[in-house]
Amino acid sequence: QAQLRESGGGVVQAGGSLRLTCLDSGPVFNNRAMAWFRQAPGKDREFVSAINWSGAKSYYADSVKGRFTISRENAKNSLYLEMNNLEPEDTAVYYCAQSDYNTVVDVSHFTSWGQGTQVTVSS
Known about the structure:
Blueprint: E1 4-7, E2 10-13, E3 18-24, E4 34-39, E5 46-51, E6 58-60, E7 68-73, E8 78-83, E9 92-99, E10 110-113, E11 117-122
Parallel strand pairs: 2-11
Antiparallel strand pairs: 1-3, 3-8, 4-5, 4-9, 5-6, 7-8, 9-10, 9-11
């Protein structure tokens, strides 16, 4: 039922910043947990960050903690990922995902996906 569309990717130098946006055209954005995942070529999809339905609780992978900030604006059906101090290792396709539940419990609950947006960090 969700229709997710990511934007904001691009090419940035190491140390730079990008802000990703995910717009949900579906009807249940404001009562579902949301997340960002990423996938580099030849690698498995990796969890990056998640946020509960209200935005009160956030989770981060150790690799991005302190550099990335997840947030949401339910009135606009939008999810954001502020990425600072980007590193070449952050290069990947970043995907927005929606959970079947209100709270963040397990990555398997994120079952709706966008098409992804490419982030390339050069050295």
